[in-house]
Amino acid sequence: MPRKFGTILAILILFAGCSKTESDKTVLQFWQFWTDPQVKPTVLRLIQKFEQENPEIKVTVTDLTWTNGHEKIVVAFASNSAPDVLELGSDWAPEFSSQNVLMDLSPAVDSIKNRFRMWEPGIFDGKIFAFPWMLDTRVLFYNKDLMSQTGLDPKHPPQTWNELLAYAKKINQPEKQIYGFGANAAERHRLYKKFLPFLWGNGSKILSEDNSSCLINSKEAVEALNFYIELTKFGLLDTQRRLDEAFMQGKIGFVISGGWLLKEIQKNNSPLNFGVVLMPKPDKNRGTPASFAGGEFLVINQKTKHPKEALKLVRFLTRLDNCLELCKAIGTPSPSDTSAIYDEYYQKDPYLKIFQEQLKYSFSPPATPKWV
């Protein structure tokens, strides 16, 4: 055998031994909700990056929608066809954590737990079943021009309940289709996210620490409810989508909304003269500027045949650099990593900086499977 041919043959044998064919790889099924054409490419790019870093693993991505995703997940677990890794909304995490279908992540995250925030929705019976991935909150949007037109100083948006009520009352002119406050109609999964900030800010809770008793009839909670009812008298009562539209049209002075509204205003290059501010406190010397905190969580199927590989994917997606890339594609969410707040992406944007600050004072609903 010629020496040159022998060398080539040896190299080919070496490569054949070192490379893995598709059939040799561990295949992970990953279900997720980011189908937006502006976001999905980033998801796929991150998965490709993960596969490059872990050539022995292949990830198959399946898209879900918020319309029927919950139902599909329920059916998948009931029929033993759930994926290895999947994304859950923070409201859903307690529901599935309580059903003995998710892998206990406690041993794997105990050493890094302090680096991340908002574990509460993922904890059940003292064990961690869901890893916080991306977080978001709600802030108070305000129309600077409507404030100026009614003699209010747009440089000083409302910081207390009384100021918000007084400003909304002054701006409210329904006969001209101008409204002081955007109040949510009775939409499932939406109205409570606008009212509970006032309850939390006033020092009340919904349930006791062990979820055994209801505290919603406390003096502080009733006080918050009475204030919210009074506030709605000087505004427009409608769905969140219509309230956001009315605000973008310059018809509402103040509305509680999330990052999606900020993204919509910027995407449309709207000339709207607006600002965002922390939620108002009950009083300057009392309470906190509390808000609702929601987010996306990653969980692992308890019956996965590839727990180590699934955990690798969860850790990869929650890693700060990767999560930041996805958050930037989406627009406003924040990585659950506590150091994200220092990234220039948030620090240099005056709006996103407020969202980051608001997260410090934001709460998630009680981690009970009965919440939804």
Written overview of the protein:
The chain has 15 helices and 14 strands. The chain has 372 residues and is of the alpha/beta class. The strands form three sheets. Strands 1, 2, 3, 6, 12, 13 and 14 form a seven-stranded mixed sheet that branches. Strand 4 (123-124) and strand 5 form a beta hairpin. Helix 8 (191-201) crosses helix 9 (219-232). The longest helix has 16 residues, at 3-18. It is globular. The termini are far apart. The mean pLDDT is 92.
According to DSSP, the number of beta strands is 14
Strand % is 15-25%
Determine the fraction of residues in helical runs and give it as a percent range.
25-40%
Order of helices and strands: HEHEHEHHEEEEHHEHHEHEHEEHHEHHE
Radius of gyration: 24 Å
Overall, the morphology is globular
Task: Let me know the largest β-sheet.
Answer: 7 strands, mixed
Note the topology.
Layout: H1 3-18, E1 26-32, H2 40-53, E2 57-63, H3 69-78, E3 85-89, H4 93-97, H5 106-109, E4 123-124, E5 127-128, E6 131-137, E7 139-143, H6 144-149, H7 161-171, E8 179-184, H8 191-201, H9 219-232, E9 235-238, H10 240-248, E10 252-257, H11 259-267, E11 274-277, E12 291-300, H12 307-318, H13 320-330, E13 334-335, H14 344-347, H15 350-359, E14 362-363
What's a concise summary of this model?
This protein is an alpha/beta fold and 372 residues long.
Which key features would you list for this structure?
single chain; 372 residues; alpha/beta; seven-stranded mixed beta sheet; five-stranded mixed beta sheet; 14 strands
